[in-house]
Design a protein that fits this description.
Blueprint (H helix, E strand, L loop, with lengths): L10 H8 L7 H14 L11 H10 L4 H17 L14 H6 E5 L8 E8 L9 H18 L4 E7 L5 H6 L3 H14 L4 E7 L5 H11 L2 H4 L2 E4 L25 H12 L2 H11 L12 H6 L13
Parallel strand pairs: 2-3, 3-4, 4-5
Antiparallel strand pairs: 1-2
Helix pairs in contact: 2-3, 3-4, 6-8
């Protein structure tokens, strides 16, 4: 059992059944096929992915082996092309100011349809535009953790700006960097978003929605909701799942944040993070033409990279 994340008794069977992988041996066969493909990728710097990692890669791609291959290639390539988002960061020592600006946590309980809720609550604390990268790095660490410790259908995101000065917040967001980060989470880690709930009474909230819609697909953009109060969340998420801060029954955000810091900063997780940061690519070994074919349309055309 994970130290924080809980899954429902029927989660694994339910999610596998959604993608016709619930019969005995079917998931094992799918994992083997994906692993055999990994072994043949000369440009991969890491080839010993755990069965659990490969399984979750298949799950977030709705059981499609071909899409799982593409996603695995993308996250490895992103670690080579966008190294500023990754690294061997210690959650206990490298993000101290970030925790004053924002608390970013995954909630322990899944919804009845097996979705994980993540909360990002921002505070009225001064920060520089250059510090936004720390939030993305922190969430990358969470994403790596989820890949081997969780089982889910997807995510519901809560962005709480009720205590932040939204106009000041918007001035510090680099749209290009945000688009790169969202590409890492959605295209690289396979984050499937069921809904995004923004909490803010600010008249500037429409500008935030416009910004978010510019960096995600039309499908995800259509799932953005704005609320003036956290009480509106109760229409979408059971109180049993929500923290005390939102009128729920779960532990407070502060308590959960401290628990997450302890887990993410454990030696076991630091060792694993170091291992996974090595899951990059050697582009000189990639089949000619494949880089342009798959990555020319990614945020930032990476013209500096030579793949001759």
């Amino acid at each position: 059992m994970d130290k924080i994340l809980l899954v429902r008794s029927d989660t694994v069977q339910h999610v596998r059944k959604l993608y016709n992988l619930d019969k005995p041996g079917m998931m094992e066969d799918a994992i083997n096929i994906l692993d055999e493909w990994v072994q043949k990728q000369k440009h991969f710097n890491k080839k010993n992915f755990s069965p659990r990692y490969l399984e979750m890669t298949i799950i977030v791609n709705k059981g499609s082996i071909e899409r799982a291959k593409a996603q695995l290639d993308k996250i490895c390539t992103m670690k080579t092309l966008l190294p500023q988002f990754f690294g061997n960061h210690n959650a206990n020592t490298d993000f101290e100011h970030l925790y004053e600006v924002v608390k970013s946590v995954l909630l322990p309980k899944l919804t009845s349809d097996h979705y994980r809720v993540n909360v990002m609550k921002f505070y009225d604390v001064e920060w520089n535009a250059s510090q936004a990268i720390y939030l993305y790095r922190h969430n990358v660490i969470l994403a790596e953790y989820v890949k081997i410790h969780d089982y889910l259908s997807g995510f519901i995101s809560i962005i709480d700006l009720s205590e932040a000065k939204l106009m000041s917040f918007l001035k510090r967001i680099n749209p290009f960097q945000l688009k790169q980060a969202m590409s890492i989470f959605i295209d690289g880690y396979g984050m499937r978003i069921k809904a995004i709930h923004i909490i803010s009474e600010s008249t500037f909230v429409d500008r935030l929605v416009t910004l978010l819609k510019s960096v995600v697909s039309a499908k995800v953009a259509s799932r953005i909701n704005v609320h003036k109060s956290f009480k509106d969340l109760h229409k979408f998420i059971p109180k049993a799942i929500l923290p005390l801060d939102y009128g729920g029954e779960e532990r407070s955000l502060k308590t959960l944040q401290n628990e997450w810091i302890e887990v993410l900063a454990s030696q076991e997780n630091l060792d694993y993070l170091k291992e996974m940061n090595g899951a990059s690519t050697n582009e000189s070994c990639r089949q000619k033409g494949k880089f342009t074919e798959h990555y020319a349309g990614m945020p930032g055309t990476f013209k500096f990279l030579s793949v001759d």
